[in-house]
Hints:
The chain is α+β, with helices and mostly antiparallel strands. Helix content is 35%, strand content 19%. The chain is built from 16 helices and 20 strands. The longest helix is centred in the C-terminal third of the chain and has 20 residues, at 419-438. Mean pLDDT is 86; it is low at 410-417.
Amino acid sequence: MIDFQSIEKYRENNRIEAKKALGGLPHSIWETYSAFANSFGGVILLGVEEHPDKSLHPINLPDPEDMVAEFWNNINNPKKVSVNILSDRNVTIHEVNGNRFISIEVPRASRSDKPVYIDGNPMTGSYRRNGEGDYKCTKDEIHAMTRDASVKTQDMLVLEEMGLDVFDYDSVHRYRIRMKNYRPGHVWEELDDADFLYKLGAIGRSADGKMHPTAAGLLMFGYEYEIVKEYPHYFLDYQEQLDSDTRWTDRIVSSSGDWSGNIYDFYFRVYNKIAQDVKTPFKLEGGDRIDDTPVHKALREALANCLINADYYGRQGIVIIKRKDSFSFSNPGSFRIDIETAKSGGISDPRNAALIKMFNMVDIGERAGSGIPNIFNVWKKQGWPAPEISENIEPERITLSLETQKTSDKKQAINTSDKKQAAKTAVYKETIISYLTENVTAKSSDISSLIGISIPRARAILAEMTENGIIIAEGANRNRVYKLKM
């Protein structure tokens, strides 16, 4: 939240837009409203100008009450704006040193309201926000938002142009064997493959009464060369980067041609790779050794979430990377709920509900939005740095980063028990906040140079600020940048 009494401390960025508005309500306000609503939200300031040093200063609107009334008249006009997502508390008149100005706090729109557009045309009136300001959405971005706005999830679509020969029935049979092990005696056990797949939601009946694959069925059990006919950008990529001298030491890709290339088989190929180095304490239960731990379960959840919540029409595909001391899980698509809500748990809004059902039937994944909170809890108990979730807009992408090295093991880690060090860290944090009010983003290397500390220590401070909700991280690894959380 902006401290309006100290507004000169702030700078325009991807969450703050200042407009003089002395000539009346500016037309560009609607582009910014659309951009904030379709991105991460933000604050529009009317009656505020930017000085040469980039600082913001109120300039006193002559009649802000009339401007607010005009704003409400326009935003409630469907010919001007597709939807009003504001309430009275979002629009406020302020006074600082005798200067009156208006703040309009635009929240991130819910998926059912996107795209938020202006002038009656979503294809020409939909905007988003980046470090450069407002920009018109591409057709791909508009189509992605429209897909997410649907009541039915993407994977429920019946693909009427395809037949049941798109399936790799070896994958289907492996799935059925696993389900039999986890659900012995299930009523579907004696069904033939077609009836089983229908009950599971992998095939559906079209208007002509014929059976066809569903999108979920194609993704789960289809051959890769059939999947790309519906999803041209479909690509599954697992990389092990355990040696700094080589690009990768092991790799699995869906297009290799030596396996099915579907997400069911990919899940088990990848899980076996990422779990093989997880330490397993010796534990017996009923005379049998238990080779499962909370870390194993958290990794399964992270992998399943990545596959289940992907927008398979999106660009760049699924990318899973295993490093010596970390994992990253990255998928196309944006969050359908606020990231902080996802961390809290209890609320679930999956992009591919049919895929969730399929994975749940073989004891993979969670239903009630508890997966992400469980990952955070497990990492906390292990004493590892808090997981980082980042969301990019262009292209739309979600990345979950998990470090497996204890903070106390890092040579440059922050020693919170050292009072002198804690005092220094507090000063560093203030410097970072000031820097990010003047600059939209910063990398850990920028902060390292700014403060004069090592990059690992800068990363540790930034990670702590992210965990405390002061800043947000976007991107992964070398492309990760940090922004102020508004």
